[in-house]
Amino acid sequence: MTTTTSHNPSYTFLKQGIYYFSKRIPTDLQQHYRQPRVVQSLKTRSVKEAAKTARHLSQRLETYWQELRLQQQDAVPFEYLLKNRRQQLTLSDAFQLYLEIKGQGRSQLFFISAQRHVNYLVQTSGNKALKHYTSIDATHYRQWLQDKGLANASVHKAFACIKAIFTLAIKEQGLTMQNPFSNIYLPSEKDDAKKRLPIAIADIRLIQSCCKAVDDDMRWLVALISDTSLRLSEAAGLMLNDLRLDEDIPHIVIQPHKHRPLKTRSSERIVPLVGASLWAAQRIAQNAQASDYCFPRYCNSKGCNSNSASAALNKWLKVVTGNKDYVLHGLRHSFRDRLRAVDAPIEMIDRLGGWSLKTVGQGYGDGYQLEQMHLTMKMLGAE
After folding, report:
1. Fewer Cβ in 10 A, N or C end of the chain?
2. Which of 353, 326, 201, 221 minimizes the C-alpha distance to 280?
3. Which 3 state secondary structure label does DSSP give 198?
4. With the C-alpha atoms ordered 228, 233, 236, 238, is the resulting torsion angle positive or negative?
5. Are 184 and 159 in contact (CB under 8 A)?
6. C-beta neighbour count of 176 within 10 angstroms
């Protein structure tokens, strides 16, 4: 008997008490395989061991699939360095050169992000010689990213990466061509704020209720954000010792880590835990395993990849609420509105949310005490 439930680790299912690994082969790579899925017995009945092994196998597959997409057809190693190959330099050649030069000392997230952006371009225009890419490929790439639902800021990041890869290859190899990804119109990042609607309080309560019903690590992440206004990257990158649950006032310490820096100096802060966020923090602590990370699915010592959580969680929010315009970041907008509704001082709002302080005067003094912020947050009616 095969059993698949929401409580099984990712990419696993149970069969006669034994965990199996199962992962769908990407459509563009299925011609290399005899079947559409990779299925393998993990030879264990332990959910902890199954989760660890499944994550390892999934990462190995993703790495191999990245190489398979970008592998060179030529047998000569570093063939792009040969003089007679200079004008035939392909996207995969340029990408390899980019990683060799720019990747030194960078975190794992740098490589994951760069590979993702290049893979997007391969999907839209193929892996061809750089001189064969045109501004039409660039505009097609932009439209494809937008159709995929990426925020304007993410489109800008993707273009910045691809443009940097082309620029480096052109300069390093002395190519006689213009960068086709330069001077392409991109929508303003400021427009993203208009798309991120605050989530109605009734829908927040619904989301929190569903989080408690499903009760898994992804839902703990949503619940944690719902009553704290943490950015997704801040929440996903938390260490277990950032949770201070045994204090008189339970709270979270938002501080920079090697695997996850903070967006701004004002992002470093202390946030009281109330309602669904307190429940989520308690569930995280109760289910802590060997890892020092609150969400080892997304973070490890090499880096934090909160982007992999964003798409899945945004999709889940839309299904739960029935509102296709909701995204996880909308909880952050709602948090600010909820604090305004209870007449919280603007300085306290900015400090709780890690928003940049608006005036020089706000930067003086120690700010609000934890007790004061806790009392204010309890007024939000968090459940």
Report:
1. N
2. 221
3. coil
4. negative
5. yes
6. 8
Q: Mean pLDDT, to the nearest integer, of 146-159?
A: 84
Amino acid letter, residue 231: R
Q: Measuring CA to CA, which residue among 245, 236, 234 is closest to residue 300?
A: 236
Q: Three-class SS of residue 36?
A: coil
Residue-wise burial string across 83-102, b where 16 or more C-beta atoms lie within 10 A, e elsewhere: eebeebbbbbbbbbbbbeee
Nearest to 328 by CA among 311, 340, 304, 341: 311
Which neighbouring-strand residues pair with 253? 270
| 374 Cβ neighbours under 8 A, 6+ residues apart | 249, 251, 272, 274
Which of 191, 356, 195, 341 shows the shortest CA–CA distance to 268? 356
**Of 295, 345, 91, 320, the residue nearest 200 (C-alpha):** 320
Cα 13 from Cα 41, distance rounded (Å) = 10
- φ, ψ at 360 (rounded to 5°): -65, -40
Cα dihedral 374, 376, 380, 383 in deg (nearest 10): 20
What confidence score (pLDDT) does residue 383 get?
A: 53
Evaluate if residue 199 carries a pLDDT over 60: yes
The β-bridge partners of 39 are 22
Tens-digit pLDDT profile for residues 253-271: 999 887 777 767 788 999 9
The tokens describing 343, both together, are 């007449």
227/307: higher pLDDT = 227
pLDDT at 165 over 90: yes
CB 100 within 8 A of CB 137: no
For the cut 70, the answer to whether the pLDDT of residue 326 exceeds it is yes
Residue-level pLDDT at 240: 94
pLDDT of amino acid 280: 97
**What pairs with residue 299 in β-bridges?**
304
Which one is predicted more confidently, 117 or 188?
117
Residue 262 is predicted with a pLDDT of 78
C-alpha 11/C-alpha 39 separation (Å) is 9
What are the backbone dihedrals phi and psi of residue 175, each rounded to the nearest 5 degrees, phi first? -75, 140
Domains and CATH numbers, the chain: 2-68 (no CATH), 78-194 (1.10.150.130), 197-378 (1.10.443.10)
Do residues 242 and 304 touch, judged by C-beta distance below 8 A? no
First-to-last C-alpha distance (Å) of the chain = 39
Q: Residue 260: what residue type?
A: R
